[in-house]
Fold this sequence. Notes:
Layout: H1 11-43, E1 48-55, E2 61-68, E3 76-79, E4 82-84, E5 88-92, E6 95-104, H2 112-121, E7 134-139, E8 145-151, H3 154-162, H4 173-183, E9 191-201, H5 207-219, E10 222-231, H6 235-245, E11 247-252, H7 258-270, E12 272-277, E13 286-293, E14 296-303, E15 307-309, H8 310-313, H9 330-366
Parallel strand pairs: 5-6, 6-7, 6-9, 9-10, 10-11
Antiparallel strand pairs: 1-2, 1-15, 2-12, 3-4, 3-13, 5-12, 7-8, 13-14
Helix pairs in contact: 1-9, 2-7, 4-5, 5-6
Amino acid sequence: xxxxxxxxxxxxxxxxxxxxxxxxxxxxxxxxxxxxxxxxxxxxxxxxxxxxxxxxxxxxxxxxxxxxxxxxxxxxxxxxxxxxxxxxxxxxxxxxxxxxxxxxxxxxxxxxxxxxxxxxxxxxxxxxxxxxxxxxxxxxxxxxxxxxxxxxxxxxxxxxxxxxxxxxxxxxxxxxxxxxxxxxxxxxxxxxxxxxxxxxxxxxxxxxxxxxxxxxxxxxxxxxxxxxxxxxxxxxxxxxxxxxxxxxxxxxxxxxxxxxxxxxxxxxxxxxxxxxxxxxxxxxxxxxxxxxxxxxxxxxxxxxxxxxxxxxxxxxxxxxxxxxxxxxxxxxxxxxxxxxxxxxxxxxxxxxxxxxxxxxxxxxxxx
Length: 367
């Protein structure tokens, strides 16, 4: 009696099949985590929180910044995933003043329409409208001139603006910024100071004046919000200055966009805050800090015993564990993708092998 031929064993293939499905399930689970994290970030895109300045020279740490799309009084802080007790959050009108000087380019080459629209753009920054406690105005057409000294009267500002017309062959932007810093030097201790700059016309390069302006603004602890038109102004230099000091940079294509840009600045200034908290125990020289308001979160790092400002001075530490967990690591994401491709290829190979083995008897009969 002859022994019938043995059919190929299917058990190993079934085992491989189930292992492939398991691998795909694991990769799909990891992918859902990544998608969930991305979804959470998108969900909070309508709110934002920024930190402009951290003073860690005293017994407590003082962080200043701005919140949009959430209540600035809701600011919370953490370091290395450990919550810190916020001993106080002052906001504009609730323990905090926002004293502002607007520096406006009125160079004759811009034309009357642009200068008038820039003046009108200051309307949401008038004292008493929520964003600003006091406002001063400096013009830079030809040279820097104080048109309105810092005042809490909206009518005084309006009267001063009425007398401003285009003048001068070039802009005195840097001298205007230095003058603004001087006007805000004597503001009270409960004040956060801001300089709002409209710049458009060109001026001769002057590294010394640029350095003086940057130093003056930083010495007085001022934030810089810039609205610029690319008609020759030094946009790259202004952008670098904002990165150093903290604030915002908006470049508009036409004077019709000025009103919207100034509205955005006013929105930022309405959400200004000053948060006070004790330094974390056992902190290193560089301290990671996560600041949250509503759904918005930002991560920075400050230096113990120092004052740091702007995105340059407050750049977050790399690998401090506060940036969203292991799944935000680029190498981990790449590994998950490779695992998924390998699992899919194995599944295809196992299914193809099972099909071929099922066809072996049919092929043998037809041969």
